[in-house]
Write a structure and sequence with these properties.
The chain is built from 16 helices and 29 strands. It is an alpha+beta fold. It folds into 3 domains: about 15-220, Rossmann fold; about 230-465, Sandwich (Jelly Rolls), CATH 2.60.120.10; about 470-569, Jelly Rolls (Sandwich), CATH 2.60.120. Strands 22, 23, 24, 25, 26, 27, 28 and 29 form an 8-stranded antiparallel β-sheet that branches. It has a 7-stranded mixed β-sheet with strand order 2-8-7-6-3-5-4. Helix 5 runs antiparallel to helix 6. It is globular and about 75 Å long. The protein starts with 14 loop residues before the first strand and ends with a helix. About 45% of the residues are buried.
Length: about 575
């Protein structure tokens, strides 16, 4: 092995096994039969954006029905009104929009006197708004929706099959998913049956109370989400080996297995696999997962995000900056910004991180040469920005406003707050994206957010390896005094009993082949976590025992600062 000394054991499809007697119906034909079994009832089938309802509508239309079938789009406000309604949110930008405050009710004109002449089946986004006796809810994970958009699926109400996937993603991120998630929260405890529609050909359905029972298991134990991996122009080779990915692919740049809004949770019930958005767990059991204080401030959002950035044998990331708190609220409508840190999970001999400005920075010259790079296609980043050599297990803090990027031959565990698309690229080394197009840079946004006071000496004393020993097993590495996250590193020698605070934590095994997480009161079965895997410890789980299977292990975890929450009320 090139990057690890043991056989790779990363689990790409972590499964939560459920032993209770929960019934699952699978296949379109069986689901259609189940829906028709309600006889004279009015049925609504609410769908998350990205669910393809065409086969379901077609299935009903091919049956000699005593039902009427209504596609909700027939009562939508229409294409022109929709575009006008979200003119501010969609913007003309390729990547960035504005988070909408509108709701599902703004998308439809449903007559107050709409009467059904016979039993009716209503299908599509917004179906729950229509009068109904039984409510089905069809869900997919966001990444599956992204893949469908890349393959030509248009956005809701849009005729944009061939539009840039980045722009399609923007429409979903700032409008569709926001509205759908708000609706989903409102529907809690009002759904009768829930459908996993990630597999178009083989959807699976559970009674809603059984589904709640399945999810409730995860409020009592640590758990993993299903990761996904994406290539990138700067991507490397580390993920291929450690995570056992497709070797025929040119590279992998990202591993996402710690983003609740993007990842899913995979269950196995009676040997049948069923998969739901990780967000659904938080919609159903927010306090049990997040903790009372985190829920009070962040509502139905897990505000912590872990991902892996792989440039091993790859290229530098883009030189970039994240927006400051005030800016992201005013310009994009987001409640908080992306403060982050780089934990160096692996490094080559020449590994480095660009971080902060040099002491002798000439601001005017920097800005002039950066702007000119759009025409000259050249920019000497090292002339203005510090480059620090980095080694495995070092930790670098990157609060919003700090110029930065990871250099090549580095494997970064990125620990950050979860406002996760707000990267203003300043310089991208004059390269094209995988789609053959120039990757967008954002000088106007970026220059308004750069903190020029974060220069060499300040960065060295505040942002590089700020570890403070708490005891033999625990070190603290606060992400920054002005941010809401704290990071900790646990060192485990064979076994360790550990007590967490009454709040949600996200963690990653950064050293050691694998570790067993056990319950001290037998409230959950043992869970094995392998090297580089991210896992979540719900607020309900406080005491655990870690058993390292190869003598010495390290875990990095992050949580919301308790003192920050107190100041925010």
């Amino acid at each position: 092995m090139k990057y690890i000394t043991f056989k790779p054991n990363y689990d790409k499809f972590p499964v939560v096994r459920i032993n209770e007697n929960f019934e699952i119906t699978h296949g379109i034909d069986m689901i259609v039969r189940h829906i028709l079994s309600h006889h004279d009832k009015h049925i609504s089938i609410e769908t998350y954006p990205g669910v393809d309802t065409s086969e379901l509508i077609h299935a009903f239309e091919n049956i000699d029905l005593k039902y009427d079938v209504i596609d909700t789009s027939l009562y939508s406000i229409g294409y022109d009104a929709y575009k006008k309604l979200f003119e501010r949110e969609f913007t003309e930008d390729r990547v960035f929009g504005f988070k909408t405050s509108k709701s599902i009710h703004d998308l439809f004109n449903i007559p107050d006197n709409l009467n059904y002449h016979k039993p009716t089946i209503i299908i599509g986004f917004g179906a729950s708004l229509f009068s109904h006796d039984v409510l089905y809810y069809a869900s997919i994970k966001r990444f599956e929706h992204q893949l469908r958009m890349r393959s030509g699926m248009p956005n809701y109400m849009m005729m944009n099959e061939d539009e840039d996937p980045l722009t399609k993603y923007k429409r979903s991120y700032f409008v569709e998913w926001v509205i759908a998630d708000r609706l989903r929260v409102q529907l809690t405890n009002h759904i009768d049956y829930i459908i996993d529609w990630n597999d178009i050909k083989n959807p699976k359905m559970m009674h809603y109370q059984h589904y709640q029972g399945v999810l409730k298991h995860l409020t009592k134990r640590p758990f993993r989400m299903v990761p996904y991996f994406d290539p990138g122009v700067w991507g490397g080779q580390w993920l291929k080996e450690v995570c056992q990915l497709d070797k025929s692919k040119e590279n992998y740049a990202w591993s996402f297995d710690g983003v609740a809004e993007e990842n899913s949770i995979l269950f196995k019930v009676h040997e049948i696999e069923i998969e739901f958005q990780a967000q659904e767990l938080i919609f159903e059991y927010p306090v049990e997962v997040l903790g009372e204080h985190v829920f009070k401030y962040f509502k139905y959002h897990l505000p912590i995000r872990f991902d892996l950035l792989d440039t091993m044998e790859g290229q530098h990331l883009s030189l970039q900056v994240h927006p400051k708190s005030k800016y992201i609220k005013e310009v994009f409508g987001m409640p908080y910004t992306q403060d982050e840190s780089y934990y160096i999970l692996d490094a080559g001999d020449d590994s480095q991180v660009f971080l902060g400005f040099k002491e002798d920075l000439d601001k005017n010259t920097f800005e002039e040469e950066l702007k000119a790079s759009l025409k000259t296609k050249s920019f000497q980043a090292e002339k203005f920005v510090n480059t620090f050599p980095v080694k495995k297990h070092e930790h670098l803090l990157i609060p919003a406003g700090t110029i930065h990027c990871s250099g090549r031959n580095t494997l970064v565990l990125e620990i950050s707050s979860a406002a996760y698309i707000f990267t203003f690229k300043l310089w991208d080394w004059n390269r094209l994206g995988l789609d053959g197009k120039p990757r967008p840079v954002y000088h106007e946004h970026g220059l308004k957010n750069l903190d020029y006071s974060r220069t060499t000496n300040y960065v060295k004393s505040h942002y590089i390896n700020p570890f403070k020993s708490i005891n033999r097993h625990l070190e603290k590495s606060g992400i920054d005094h002005g941010t809401f996250l704290d990071a900790y590193r646990i060192s485990i020698y064979n076994e360790l009993q550990f007590t967490f605070k009454n709040t949600v934590q996200m963690a990653n095994l950064v050293e050691g082949k694998s570790i067993i997480v056990s319950s001290l009161d037998r409230s959950f079965e043992d869970i094995t976590i392998h090297y580089a895997e991210t896992f979540i410890i719900p607020a309900n789980v406080k005491e655990v025992k870690f058993t390292c299977l190869d003598g010495h292990c390290k875990i990095m975890y992050a949580e919301v600062k308790s003192e920050w929450l107190k100041l925010s009320y």
